[in-house]
Every structure is written in C-alpha cells, then in structure tokens.
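Internal tracking record. Fields below are filled automatically when a chain is submitted to the structure queue. Please do not edit lines marked as system-generated. If the sequence contains nonstandard residues, flag them in the REMARKS field before resubmitting.
Queue: standard
Priority: normal
Entity type: single polypeptide chain
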Amino acid sequence: MNPQIKRSIKFSITIAVITFVLAAIFSIISSSVLNQVTWITGIVVVLIIVLLGVVFDTLGIAATAADEVPFHAMAAEKVPGAKQAVIITRNADRFASFCNDVIGDISGIVSGTASAIVILNIANLMGQSDGSTFEITLNVLFTSLVAALTVGGKAVGKFLAINFSTQIIIFVAKIIAFTENTFKIKLLPYNNGDKKKNNKK
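SYSTEM-GENERATED OUTPUT FOLLOWS
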C-alpha cells in the first residue's frame, strides 16, 4: 500500500477514535453541569462551548494560511515556540483537521445538546414544558441565537486567521512549548525529519 495512503488511513482512524472519546467526555460533562446549575449559568456554559468552537476553528484556518518561512527565522533567533510553530505549519492539514473537524464539530454538536437542556430547564421553571407554545418559541429563538453567534463568530475568526495567521500560530506555539516543557509531554506530531531540521536551527 502507498505510504501516504497508509498514513492517511491511520490518521483518519486515530482522529475518529479521538473524536468519539472527546465527544463522549464533552457530552457527559456538559449534561452533568447543566442539570445542576441555574438556567442563567446554563446559557453561559452554552456560550463558552460556542466560543471554544469558534476559537479552534480560527486556529485551524490560521495553520493552513500561515507561511512556514517566518517561523524558521524566529527559530534561528531562539524565539520561544518557533520550533513548535514550524511543526504546526508543516502539519497544517492534521492540525486543522483536529481543530476544525474534531473540536469545532464537537463543540457545534454539544452546544446544540446543551441548548436543548437549557431550554427544557427554563420551560420547566415556567411550568410550560411538554411541547407548549412557550417552549417551542424559546427553542426557536435560543437555537437561532446560538447558530447566529456560531456563524458570526467563525466569520470573524476566518478574517483574523487569514490576516494574522503568523501572530496567531506563534502565540499558540508558545503556549504549546510552555506546556510541553512544563509537563514534559508531547502535544505535536514530531518526527525524525522535524527533529533533525529543528536541531540545525
């Protein structure tokens, strides 16, 4: 089998497994939290989930829009996170897949589920559950608001990602570098080729 095809299949399976696990974790946590808090707090939780999706969507686009060259210059000047930025841009397809398809899509699905729980809680509080006109109207309004915030937020994120891709990626790379150095864990897909090239910097 072609090495590239084999690598693609392996990555796809890995992403699918990660998505399944993260989706389950996100759903369990959000459902547990929303069933134990007030409806106002529930709305805040939904907005945080939406924001999370927008942020990761922006990161994914920034990775594909960023040029690798400036980060090599930063690495030569020993700028913290520069080597990680090179790895991100070199693996932009996989980084974007994780940010956009995994975290971004999971956030969209979970925000929908979370919205339904919030709406049900508000309707029960008002004594207007079981498919009442109030619940239906609230469902339409809140779902539309979440959709508008998601689409609008991602539109702004795309603009920022395209026009400020270098700044965004180096910022994220610095966070990753700090995390890796502090907790001694590997967050990026380093390989021998990357290590050799980085060691020359």
